[in-house]
C-alpha cells in the first residue's frame, strides 16, 4: 500500500512538472455602435467694485445775490496768499458786502471751496453666472 501511494504521488508530481503555463487570448470588443453623454455645470460669482473719486486741485471763491454790493467799491477778487508753495484765498482780505437799497428784498450767497476730494462714488455689483454644457458623442465601427 505504501508502494502504491508512493507511485501515485510520483505520477502526480510528474504531471505537474510537465504542465504548460496557461495562455490567454486577447479580448476584442464586439460592438457596432455606442454613445457617451457628459453633463457639466459651472457656477461662478463675480463681485465688481467701482470707485470713482473726483478731486479739485485749486480753490474757488464765488459771491452771488441781488441788492448787494461791495463796501466802498472794494475789488470783487479777493487777495491770495501762498502757503508751502500753494496759492489759497486770503480770508483776511476778502471783500465785505452791504445791501444796496436798505429795506428792499435781497439775496446773498458767498462760497469758498478749497482743494481736495470733492466727491466719492462707490458702485458694487454682483453677477452670478451659471453655465451648463451637455455633450452627446456617438460612435460606430
Instruction: Label the overall shape.
Output: rod-shaped
The share of residues in extended strands comes to over 45%
Structural class: mainly beta
Our measurement of the CA-to-CA distance between the termini, rounded to an integer number of angstroms, reads 65 Å
How many beta-strand runs? 8
Helicity, as a percent range: 10-25%
Number of helices, counting only DSSP H or I runs of 4 residues or more: 1
Order of helices and strands: HEEEEEEEE
Average of per-residue pLDDT values: 82
Strand order across the biggest sheet? 1-8
- Any idea what the radius of gyration is? 50 Å
Unreliable sequence segments: none
Largest sheet: 2 strands, antiparallel
Report on this model:
The mean pLDDT is 82. The chain is built from 1 helix and 8 strands, in the order αββββββββ. The two termini are 65 Å apart. It has one helix at residues 2-17; strands at 33-56, 60-66, 68-70, 80-83, 86-89, 97-99, 107-113, 116-140. β4 and β5 form a beta hairpin. It is rod-shaped and about 150 Å long. The strands form 4 sheets. A two-stranded antiparallel ribbon has the order 1-8. By secondary structure, it is mainly β.
Amino acid at each position: 500500500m505504501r508502494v502504491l501511494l508512493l507511485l501515485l504521488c510520483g505520477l502526480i508530481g510528474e504531471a505537474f512538472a510537465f504542465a504548460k503555463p496557461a495562455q490567454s487570448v486577447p479580448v476584442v470588443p464586439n460592438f457596432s455602435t455606442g454613445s457617451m453623454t457628459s453633463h457639466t455645470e459651472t457656477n461662478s460669482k463675480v463681485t465688481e467694485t467701482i470707485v470713482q473719486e473726483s478731486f479739485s486741485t485749486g480753490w474757488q471763491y464765488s459771491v452771488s445775490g441781488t441788492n448787494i454790493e461791495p463796501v466802498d467799491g472794494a475789488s470783487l477778487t479777493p487777495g491770495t496768499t501762498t502757503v508751502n508753495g500753494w496759492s489759497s484765498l486770503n480770508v483776511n482780505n476778502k471783500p465785505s458786502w452791504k445791501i444796496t437799497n436798505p429795506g428792499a428784498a435781497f439775496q446773498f450767497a458767498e462760497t469758498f471751496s478749497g482743494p481736495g476730494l470733492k466727491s466719492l462714488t462707490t458702485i458694487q455689483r454682483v453677477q452670478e453666472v451659471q453655465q451648463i454644457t451637455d455633450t452627446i458623442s456617438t460612435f460606430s465601427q
